[in-house]
Specification:
- By secondary structure, the protein is of the alpha/beta class.
- The chain has a single domain, classed as 3-Layer(aba) Sandwich (Dna Topoisomerase Vi A Subunit, Chain: A, domain 2), CATH 3.40.1360.
- It is built from five helices and six strands, in the order βαββαβαβαβα.
- The strands form two sheets. Strands 2-1-3-4 form a four-stranded parallel sheet.
Length: 140
């Protein structure tokens, strides 16, 4: 399958995919959470600017790391400390799984954020982030 888009946004949640704003020369893919591994052999993603936007929690960062294992060029979208601080009033406490050992594909900043989220049992679901905030961040 060939795609004309230069940018591909992979999102964790279906609602987010459906509400994602139009962006020039871009498409949005529903990554199905941990099923993102299904994209491993997607030749149409090669040579594209790839962005992953998942929940801001340990699982979301683990999925980002797994995706980067196959596509090192993947950049995270709204999965940073700045976003967490901006929406701290929407953060919930959620039980976390044991620490994932396959995080070597995260940046140092992302690893620190992972630790903060894991130890605090924190989660910021991507659908809680405002549409306006997303649009401002898309000035890529």
């Amino acid at each position: 399958m060939k795609i004309a888009a230069k940018r591909v946004f992979i999102v964790e949640n279906k609602v987010t995919m459906l509400a994602f704003p139009d962006h020039p020369e871009a498409i949005v893919i529903f990554g199905l959470g941990y099923a993102v591994n299904l994209l491993v052999d997607a030749q149409c993603l090669q040579g594209r600017e790839l962005y992953y936007w998942g929940d801001l929690d340990p699982d979301g960062l683990t999925i980002l790391s797994r995706l980067r294992q196959y596509y090192p060029q993947v950049k995270s979208l709204l999965m940073d400390r700045k976003t967490l601080e901006h929406f701290k009033h929407l953060v919930v406490h959620a039980p976390t799984q044991s620490i994932e050992k396959e995080l070597q594909y995260l940046t140092e900043e992302e690893c620190l954020l992972y630790q903060k989220l894991h130890h605090g049992s924190l989660r910021l679901e991507q659908e809680r982030i405002s549409f306006n905030y997303l649009q401002k961040s898309l000035a890529i």
